[in-house]
Amino acid sequence: MxxxxxxxxxxxxxxxxxxxxxxEFNPSKVYFDAIFVSKLKLETTTIINLCNELNNSSEFVNxxxxxVNSNTSNGxxxxxxxxxLSDIISIYNQNSSIETEKSRFVLAYYFDALxxxxxxxxxxxxxxxxxxxxxxxxxxLENIRAQNRITSINDKQNQSFLLTALSETKNPNLQKILNSxxxxxxxxxxxxxxxxxxxxxLESKKAVANSNITAISEEDTLEKVLEELHxxxxxxxxxxxxxxxxxxxxxxxxxxxxxxKNIEIMLHTVFIGPPGTGKTxxxxxxxxxxxHLGYLSKGQLYETDREGMIAGYVGQTATxxxxxxxxxxxxxxxxxxxxxxxxxGLGNDYGAExxxxxxxRMEDFRDDLAVVVAGYNEPMQLFIASNPxxxxxxxxxxxxxxxxxxxxxxxxxxxxxxxxxxxxxxALEKISDTFELLYQKKDDSFGNAxxxxxxxxxxxxxxxxxxxxxxxxxxKALKTITEGDIPEPTETVKQVYLE
Length: 499
Description:
Blueprint: H1 34-55, H2 58-66, H3 70-73, H4 80-94, H5 101-116, H6 125-131, H7 135-147, H8 161-168, H9 174-189, H10 195-203, H11 205-208, E1 213-214, H12 222-231, H13 236-257, E2 269-272, H14 279-292, E3 301-304, H15 306-309, H16 316-328, E4 332-336, H17 351-364, E5 370-375, H18 377-385, H19 388-393, E6 397-399, H20 405-418, E7 422-423, H21 425-440, H22 449-467, H23 475-479, E8 480-481, H24 489-496
Parallel strand pairs: 2-5, 2-6, 3-4, 4-5, 7-8
Antiparallel strand pairs: 1-3
Helix pairs in contact: 1-5, 1-9, 4-5, 5-9, 9-10, 12-14, 16-17, 20-21, 20-22, 21-24
């Protein structure tokens, strides 16, 4: 009996054809043959066996699941098969512009094998070639691509979970997984997957390092750091505080060389001030300074916030914090808007777990870790006062002030200089009026250098709209920002303060 109902691809398995009679289909084109389907079965069987082996390694399972965004995992631990599927969907999506019926069938076959342990019948070639042209098949495949992508802890769109976890755990199966990805790319798109280059990248320190980490150049020196500090606009009090720390640490080292006893110096610091005043920049400089003075082994900066430290379910926040601290060891852990860790003030979310775990690890690594917590004045004071451990470990405060109008002009002009733009005198006067008005209305949320950056980008956009229709544009015209390119000061104030 001929079947006339719409095809239900997700019943039993995606490529199930048990309810269909092959003879009723007569596709106009054959996209693959039985030999190709047999290759798919051999390849996916190998992958399943490899994934089962990986699932037996607790070290690997813990590592690969630590890469997952806890807000999307609902407390579940994924298996290697699910990570493999997510990874090949990433490969597929990157090449979706050249997808064909054949590539869609390959992805469907891998999905069915990995999720359902089902292998399409290579004897039913006519039926399978017909199935992949059906609109329902294409629609269901789109759903599979959307629903089987695992979100990484850093929301990286093309995160390769298996490659990252295998590389970081030095698992011997890394090469096998690379081979499997190459085979998938070749079977789907006839592409050559550069597994050797990928392996070298993964094994390099820069690739396995978290994207939140700023490493230090081997050519870096204390003199270079101090010069960069000196060149920062404003921040006179902060610069003085940094110099006083340097003096203290240098004298401590000299006392140590003379066999004298030293006081215990904690590098942990509280940064208080509005956004856009250079707190992250100064934290990065501190890491480099502490390294050059011999108080940190690496000096790198790891930047995070509440979202990067708190999970959505019991027991996983400590794991998340431990991972952050482990990657920060030897450098500076910079926690922006740190009061977000206990933002409800009642201690009934996972913030208390995050703070207590952080305090314990700060003690464990007290000789090779500097924690910098940052945020607005009053919330930061309340945050430090909320826990005796925080009060005892953070006794050094840096206060960052709003930039003055003249300093904001300096920052704006530095953006111009770095991007090969010049201001006419009239433009400079207009931008000066803008910063004067903004400064008069400033509040704790005023973005300072970030606002200056946004205004600069708007000016560049306005300049481009002004000169784009000129037939012969001179170099001077391309470089010059005029008064008309500067947004009206009152309009800028309304936009910045949402009036």
